[in-house]
Design a protein that fits this description.
6-stranded antiparallel β-barrel; GMP Synthetase, Chain A, domain 3; 4 domains; Thrombin, subunit H; 34 strands; alpha+beta
Length: 504
């Protein structure tokens, strides 16, 4: 690992100050250096962050951290998700993975090209020089995947371990694993065989998130609400049902029909619901409350995640690997998210989130929530892409054309990059129970976001948001009576905006 002195110390200080604005640094000649890309993303994430109590309490309990550390983790993980793709593109073939680590999620980027170290440091990440690129390690996983027919039952999983810069093969019988690796043609020097007692299995006849029933009575759980054109529905695990299978909701009312399903190989499916059901962009956090879904940005390896399941409720852990393969009795599933979150039968198909970002649906795993365990998740973005689905976020609907006209109230204003304002005044407005409709028409070429906040005691809490990468946003939110306000934030770019609001 590359040793660092002043640069590392400066970065550690930036993490310690996590929620403070990015401050320009002064160089040895007195010149002012611009904040790094990661520091800017931290500042933007801190400005937008209002994590739900469900996330904080779950992370405190399951990760053994303080509320302050949990908030810091969420800010740094959001910043890592924002700048990670650009760093990967810049490193090109030299990219060897990126992850977050430690109680406050320090952002680390690895490279196999020593000439790229400076680029990583300038972006504000901690650099690590390794031997193998991620493409090389992924190629080894692909070799193992291609030989899946020859994988013994004693080899339940294999995945890229970014931190050790190797491919880990888990096995109850190491000798059998060695034979499997040798026959696959994968480069043995890239692979580390580890003894494991894992016996992964799909969670059949179970509920996770909100329960639903398939056919004559088997149960699974809603993953995330989705739409396809004008049709609403939800994503779930593929092993829960086949195309054409009918479903009933947790209240036993006729709900929908499986439109497509893939298992094994993949573990995903989607169900189209009938007119009695309305998809909403939230996750049932059980005793921890309702969690809003703000998008589906992939969290970095090491990021904290939480899962909803009706058997064990709300539990949290961390992402251990992406693109993991796991073998169940029914066959091998590839491209999964491996996590330290516990789960038990009854949690299958349920929602995995990192902050407000959807990550995947529960596939299967080993262990339990008493002694701990490992759980695998089918990535939500793969499901969306496979079936042409759109994730429902906080009741989000596509921004209407015409500059947000036809709303009960209209507000105008202007913002510079990373600035916020309250379009309806910072003291808010009184509303009865019902539906809030909010629309933002932002400047072309910018990234403007909106947040609907509700007053609880003396604290304002985000209850819905529109945070896409574009200038225009819109959503609906059904809420109880209370005091609300709308915050407009210029994530990037400057200019004038128009906001439409219809309140109950």
């Amino acid at each position: 690992m590359l040793r660092r002195s002043a640069v590392t110390a400066g970065f550690a200080l930036a993490l310690a100050l996590m929620a403070t604005p990015a401050i320009a640094q002064t160089g040895p000649g007195g010149e002012t250096a611009a904040p790094t890309a990661f520091a800017q993303a931290q500042t933007q994430a801190a400005a937008a962050a209002q994590p739900s109590p469900a996330l904080i309490e779950g992370m405190k309990r399951d990760l053994g951290i303080t509320a302050e550390q949990a908030t810091t983790r969420l800010i740094n993980e959001a910043a890592a998700a924002k700048v990670g793709p650009a760093i990967r593109e810049q490193l090109a073939a030299g990219f060897a993975g990126a992850w977050v680590t430690g109680p406050t999620s320090t952002f680390v980027v690895a490279t196999s090209d020593s000439t790229k170290i400076t680029s990583i440091l300038r972006a504000g990440a901690e650099a690590r020089l390794v031997k193998h690129s991620l493409a090389t390690l992924d190629a080894a996983v692909a070799k193992l995947d291609a030989a899946v027919a020859d994988a013994p039952k004693s080899v339940p999983s294999w995945y890229v371990d970014l931190q050790s810069n190797s491919v880990v093969v888990l096995a109850a019988d190491p000798a059998a694993a060695e034979a499997f690796v040798g026959a696959s043609g994968a480069d043995r020097s890239l692979i580390r065989v580890e003894t494991s007692a894992e016996q992964p299995r799909p969670f059949y006849d179970v509920r996770g998130g909100d329960a639903y029933y398939i056919g004559s009575g088997s149960r699974c759980s809603v993953g995330f609400s989705v739409t396809r054109g004008t049709q609403g529905g939800f994503a779930t695990a593929g092993h829960c049902g086949n195309a054409g299978s009918t479903t009933r909701g947790s209240n036993q009312v006729a709900q929908g029909t499986f439109q497509a399903s893939s298992f094994p190989g993949n573990d995903y499916a989607w169900v189209a619901v009938n007119a009695n059901w309305t998809p909403t962009g939230v996750v049932n956090g059980y005793s921890n409350g309702i969690v809003q879904v703000g998008g589906s940005a992939d969290a970095a390896v090491g990021s904290s995640v939480c899962r909803a399941g009706s058997t064990t409720g709300w539990h949290c852990g961390a992402i251990q690997a992406r693109n993991a393969s796991v073998t169940y009795p029914e066959g091998t599933i590839t491209g999964l998210i491996r996590t330290s979150v516990c789960a038990e039968p009854g949690d299958s198909g349920g929602s995995l989130v990192s902050g407000s970002q959807a990550q995947g649906v529960t596939s299967g795993g080993s262990g339990n929530c008493t002694s701990g365990g490992t759980t695998y998740f089918q990535p939500i973005n793969e499901i969306l892409q496979a079936y042409g689905l759109t994730l429902v976020t906080g009741g989000t609907t596509p921004p209407p054309t015409g500059g947000c006209t036809g709303y009960q109230n209209t507000y105008t204003g202007s913002l510079t990059s990373n600035q916020s304002t309250y379009a309806t005044s910072s003291t808010g407005y009184s509303a009865a129970s019902g539906v809030h409709r909010v629309c933002l028409d932002g400047p072309t070429g910018t990234d403007f976001d909106i947040y609907l906040q509700k007053l609880s005691g003396s604290t304002w809490t985000n209850v819905a948001s529109g945070t896409s990468a574009g200038a225009d946003e819109a959503f609906t939110y059904t809420g109880t009576a209370g005091t609300y306000r709308v915050r407009v934030h210029a994530y990037s770019g400057s200019g004038s905006f128009r906001l439409g609001l219809t309140r109950p």
